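Thread amino acids onto this structure.
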């Protein structure tokens, strides 16, 4: 079982940047493949969460075409085994959502499908 703890998020103005952090832990100590998903207002079920970025254990990154180059997933160079970042640039009001990291997603091409373990979520609110 992987335990994920998120930090970051907050209220920002359109055009600004934000970085979210996800730290994983289990008896093996990582590294973990991590996916980032978001749940926009009006999305009622976890199944509706939208994939925005993913990184595999080997460091390969995955993004949907809708990411438009504004989302960057990376590992913390100081703690690469258990800490992953999601950088969001040029934030738009449409990016307002609850952002979740997810452990061990299945990733292929420009898509990841979530694994079983979620972080607690981080709210990002973007005002125009």
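Threaded sequence (128 positions):
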């Amino acid at each position: 079982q992987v335990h994920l703890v998120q930090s970051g998020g907050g209220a920002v103005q359109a055009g600004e940047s934000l970085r979210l952090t996800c730290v994983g832990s289990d008896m093996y100590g990582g590294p973990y493949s991590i996916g980032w998903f978001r749940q926009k207002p009006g999305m009622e079920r976890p199944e509706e969460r939208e994939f925005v970025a993913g990184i595999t254990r080997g460091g390969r990154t995955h993004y949907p075409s809708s990411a438009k180059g504004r989302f960057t997933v990376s590992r913390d160079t100081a703690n690469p085994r258990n800490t992953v970042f999601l950088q969001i640039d040029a934030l738009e009001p449409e990016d307002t959502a609850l952002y979740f990291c997810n452990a061990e997603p299945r990733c292929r091409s420009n898509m990841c499908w979530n694994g079983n373990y979620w972080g607690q979520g981080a709210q990002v609110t973007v005002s125009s």
